[in-house]
Amino acid sequence: MRSFVLADPLDFDGWREAARRLRLAGVEPAEVRFVVGHSRGDLFDEAAALPEVEGAFNAPRAFMETAAQLIQHRSENRFDLMYRLLWRLKDQPDLLNVLSDQDVAEAADRVKAVRRAAHKMKAFVRFRQAEDEAGEHWVAWFEPAHRVLQATAPFFVRRFSAMRWTILTPDGSAHWNGEALDCRPAAEQAQAPTEDAMEDFWRTYYASTFNPARLRPQAMQSEMPKRYWKNLPEAALIPELMAAASVRTEAMVTRPTSRPNDRFQRVRAPVVDRAATDDLAPESLDELARGVQGCRRCPLWRDATQGVCGEGPKRAALMVVGEQPGDQEDLVGRPFAGPAGRLLGAAFEEAGLNRRDLYLTNAVKHFKHEPRGKRRLHKTPNAGEVQACRWWLDHERRLVKPRLILALGATAGLAVLGRKPAVQAERGRVMTTADGARVLLTVHPAYLLRLPDPARRDSERARFLADLAAASAQF
Predict the structure, then answer these.
(1) Considering 191, 209, 243, which residue would you say is the last residue of a domain?
(2) 112 and 131 part of one domain
(3) Cα 128 to chain centroid, rounded
């Protein structure tokens, strides 16, 4: 057995170079042990120099990605496992797909543990406010289950790019000065502040959001293991909150039913006789707006506050069609008045479009939702509801006579094109309908709001702006 020394526990480059030489020299895994630093393993191990070899070979990308995560695991034999897999891939190129193989299964379990440790770090790091010579500085102490700090630190750069912070761990520390990320040696917990002025606010917030009726201790401790509690401000409250959960739950059950949220009663849609509106083609946008308030073509009117018609010039060159009114649009009676509408307005400005020159409407005129406590959660209209409301949209198109229709999302595409489009495949190009209307399809701005990854969100927003620019160039 020969030992080969690596510089540190995360010395991936050193291991890769050693593994390359050893494999080219034909040194089998059973003859090799990798050790870190000055650790030599057993007294009878031979501390060997790497063989001098020439040549190169390519390792599968999937293996390199697995190895880059596997090296973060705390097991002492992880380097040996990595080399054993690399050696076997020479004769078994599809080895990593054989999940029943012992080495592959062991590697997969360790990678899963590393990913879980990274997830826990993102969830349970708690920064505390401190001061240094440069001013405000946020510091956190964390003890990850595996050596995930270097790989996870870029997440905190993206999330907290506007503040200076340091994460201290027993394996190393990461420091962000607002411009560059710096990885430093291991730290001690004494270097981190024990509390700050925000502790009481955080504990108050946690106590106010704790729902005793949904308490599941085993699931909670599985997601938030006790090993992390000592660094969490809210940890001191957890035993007391759990002990009082049954009493609080009983009090919630016996409490009298609360009144409905008054905000849903602020605006009442006028009731119009169906026979006077549904079968008569409107001669103006004002007539159409009055008719929508009495529409009974589908059941959505029953739960909505009011119908929401289009808004804009009577002869707009561009008609923008969304899906349906949202919660705020349903209350104020105007299209695109909520968060998605604000994002859309900002995008219009960047693309050189003036919202006042556009006609904005929706494929469906009533808000489809389901109540969830005091909230109303959006539900996507089905094909029957879209078809029923298409009567109104067709009349809007007839009265406005736009030169181009911009359809936002699949529901709008269904209403305008008469079929369910593949948005990502068909977006950005002008299509012509059977009645000669020119249509450009793109995503709904609400899609951008739902993207959790900042980089993906920025990329998709750039594509959205390009679609708006393409629409602007058509007239």
Answers:
(1) 191
(2) no
(3) 25
Strand ranges across the sheet with 404-408 = 359-362, 318-322, 404-408, 438-442, 430-432
Q: How many CA atoms lie within 13 A of 390 on its CB side?
A: 16
Give all strands (DSSP E) within 23-155, no chain letters: 32-36, 46-47, 128-132, 135-141
Partner residues linked to 139 by β-bridges: 128, 166
Q: Which amino acid is at 199?
A: E
Q: What residues does 165 pair with on adjacent strands?
A: 138, 176
Structure token digits, residue 326:
């949202």
Q: 322 and 385 share a domain?
A: yes
pTM: 0.51
The residue written with tokens 């209307």 in the block is 437
Same domain? For 47 and 185 the reply is no
Read off the tokens for 350.
């960047």
- Rg over CA atoms, the chain: 31
The domain containing residue 25 runs over which residues? Answer: 2-119
Q: Are both 146 and 220 inside the same structural domain?
A: no
Which residues are CB-contacts of 332 (< 8 A; sequence separation ≥ 6)? 267
| pLDDT tens per residue across all 475 residues of the chain | 788 899 999 999 999 999 999 999 999 999 999 999 755 444 445 557 888 888 778 889 999 999 999 999 999 999 999 999 999 998 899 999 999 999 999 999 999 999 999 999 998 898 988 888 888 999 999 999 999 999 999 999 999 999 999 999 999 999 999 999 999 888 888 888 887 777 777 777 777 777 777 777 777 667 777 777 777 777 777 777 777 777 777 777 777 766 655 554 444 444 444 444 455 788 999 999 999 998 988 999 999 999 999 999 999 999 999 999 999 999 999 999 999 999 999 999 999 999 999 999 999 999 999 988 888 999 999 999 999 999 999 999 999 999 999 999 999 999 999 999 999 999 999 999 989 999 999 999 999 999 988 899 999 999 999 999 999 998 7
Shared domain check, 466 and 408: yes
Last residue of a domain, one of 173, 191, 209: 191
Is the Cα torsion angle 85, 88, 90, 95 positive or negative in sign? Answer: negative
Q: Regarding beta strands 135-141 and 165-169, do their DSSP bridges make them parallel or antiparallel, or are they unpaired?
A: parallel
- Distance, CA of 206 to CA of 238 (rounded, Å): 9
Burial group, residue 188, by CB count within 10 angstroms (0-12, 13-18, 19+): exposed
CA 103 – CA 85 distance, rounded (Å)? 7
